[in-house]
Specification:
- The protein is α+β, with helices and mostly antiparallel strands and about 150 residues long.
- It contains three helices and eight strands; from the N terminus they run βββββαβββαα.
- Strands 1, 2, 3, 4, 5, 6, 7 and 8 form an eight-stranded mixed beta sheet that branches.
- The longest helix has 15 residues.
Length: about 150
């Protein structure tokens, strides 16, 4: 078994009276094809994890956040096919309500879903979203310390 720390997740939010989170439909032939997912990807050599999350956000959606935060949660998951255990930090990107999502070839569709009703494939996504909601979206005590200047 190999332990990897070269992956990041970025949850994208906008506020339209209530908080909404962006989900992306993985393209056929891609890892986790035909599932609704969140922005994610690898960390390149010499790149910080938060820079990787910002780059993946731009590559997958062409979005630029107005505010950016460490998500205060590290996802841990196992891939049996490669016998690898991943530890991936999470990030929260806040975008303008009218920001336009432009998808790359990794995804075929996008949707904004209320934070109150977002379906998640993995329990760890639900846990990460709950932490982000508590600490960042609801102005928790850790919020000022989680902010990353972009």
């Amino acid at each position: 078994m190999r332990i990897r720390t070269d992956c990041v997740f970025c949850y994208v939010f906008r506020e339209r009276g209530t908080w909404e989170v962006l989900q992306l439909l993985r393209a056929p032939g891609r890892f986790m094809e035909d599932t609704w997912a969140f922005v994610s990807g690898g960390v390149e050599p010499g790149e910080t994890m938060h820079d990787a999350a910002l780059r993946e956000l731009r590559e997958e959606t062409q979005l630029t956040p107005t505010k950016f935060y460490h998500g205060d949660h590290v996802k841990t998951y196992y891939l049996p096919v490669s016998d690898e255990l991943f530890h991936a930090p999470t990030f929260a990107a806040i975008v303008d309500v009218d920001a336009e999502v432009v998808l790359n070839d990794e995804h075929t569709d996008q949707r904004w879903v209320s934070i109150d009703a977002v379906p998640t494939l993995w329990t760890d996504d639900a846990d990460a979203l709950a932490t982000i909601r508590r600490q960042i979206l609801n102005d928790g005590p850790g919020k000022p310390h989680l902010r990353i200047d972009v």
